[in-house]
Design goal:
- The protein contains 13 helices and 2 strands.
- With 349 residues, it is an all-alpha fold.
- A two-stranded antiparallel sheet has the order 1-2.
- β1 and β2 form a beta hairpin.
- The longest helix is centred in the N-terminal third of the chain and has 32 residues.
Length: 349
């Protein structure tokens, strides 16, 4: 049941626009997250090709996200986020159109992955910077919790809806290009809608330091993180986790669904189960909050160790429900600590 603070926050017009547009956009994202790897596997059946596509999408985020944050600070987070949403919509509509015209190719999939990665490198930091300007400072913790809960709701419902679309024209394990085109077009339309809702938001200006030049601002940001030992340690640790766990998992799940389970529908079930578990973990995150803050680092390591064991077991499954059960538990553990991590970073920065 929502608290009085949550109810007050939901009366905030700015937050309602952000929450509604964000929900629609995040639901759409799940269509592309399912369709892009399935496009590569449909064309090649090769896990290496899928890994290259994942790398092409992830590398620009890793390399350019600091530049994206600096650009958002200098030229307005809303303006940068709007441009990112429009760029995503154009990329996805072009991809959908080419698939409908029977111009599917691995080069096209790689180009789309790279372009989407570049757009997200600017959109992600801009989206993060908007919330503190849209809600009162005292409501930031609850706003983060509600936004992240809505995101996890989209991670539950989105993959299941996407699996229905992708399964509509599937023949055996091969998903039809028309279904893939429809998935990309749906995501493009959600970007257009969320851009419209973002234009309805009124942001209050934040006090900022005098600009020193874009590259100096980036250097100052890096120096600030490096001097902050807890922040530096966490970012290095999360980078290692992303490289050795999250990246391979983005390849492993589609390949697992393709080779051992039942195609796109199974992949949607796995992703939806993880989203459901994460949502449940977030809903439980208010329990033991003070205890978690006091033992922040130790709790993160313990959760990651348990998740690592569960992911090892994932390689031994034979049915979709076994994978769904394991991913639901990993999501539950991850969701429990996510709100605390995100708010800790915002407050510290």
């Amino acid at each position: 049941m929502p608290s009085a603070t949550d109810t007050d926050l939901l009366r905030n017009t700015n937050f309602r626009w952000l929450l509604g547009g964000g929900l629609v956009s995040m639901l759409g994202d799940q269509f592309s997250m399912l369709a892009l790897p399935w496009l590569v596997l449909s064309l090649t059946g090769d896990s290496l090709s899928l890994g290259i596509a994942v790398a092409l999408m992830g590398a620009p985020r890793a390399v350019l996200i600091l530049l994206g944050g600096t650009v958002a600070d200098r030229y307005s987070p809303r303006r940068v986020l709007l441009l990112s949403k429009y760029a995503n919509a154009v990329i996805l509509l072009a991809l959908a159109g080419l698939l409908m015209l029977d111009h599917a190719s691995l080069v096209l999939a790689y180009a789309a992955a790279l372009a989407l990665g570049i757009a997200s490198a600017f959109g992600i930091p801009a989206g993060t910077a908007i919330l503190p300007q849209a809600v009162p400072p005292q409501a930031l913790q609850n706003a983060n919790g509600l936004q992240m809960a809505v995101r996890q709701l989209s991670l539950l419902a989105g993959p299941l809806l996407a699996a229905l679309v992708l399964g509509a024209h599937a023949g055996g394990q091969q998903t039809g290009m028309a279904a893939l085109a429809a998935a990309f077009a749906i995501d493009a339309l959600t970007f257009v809608f969320s851009a419209w809702t973002l234009r309805q938001v009124t942001l209050r200006p934040l006090a900022v330091a005098a600009a020193q030049g874009m590259w100096r601002d980036m250097a100052a940001g890096l120096a600030m993180v490096w001097r902050d030992r807890p922040l530096r340690s966490c970012y290095i640790y999360w980078a290692l986790v992303a490289f050795f766990v999250m990246g391979p998992l983005q390849v492993a799940l589609p390949v697992l669904a393709s080779e051992r389970l039942h195609g796109a529908a199974a992949l949607g079930l796995l992703m939806g189960a993880h989203g459901a578990g994460t949502l449940a973990g977030m809903l439980a995150s208010s329990l033991g909050g003070a205890w978690l803050r006091q033992r922040f680092g130790a709790t993160l390591l313990l959760v990651d160790a348990i998740v690592g064991g569960l992911l090892m077991a994932l390689g031994q499954i034979e049915t979709a429900w076994q994978g769904a059960a394991l991913l639901a538990v990993t999501g539950l553990l991850g969701g429990y600590v996510q709100v605390a991590i995100f708010t800790w970073i915002q407050r510290r920065v």
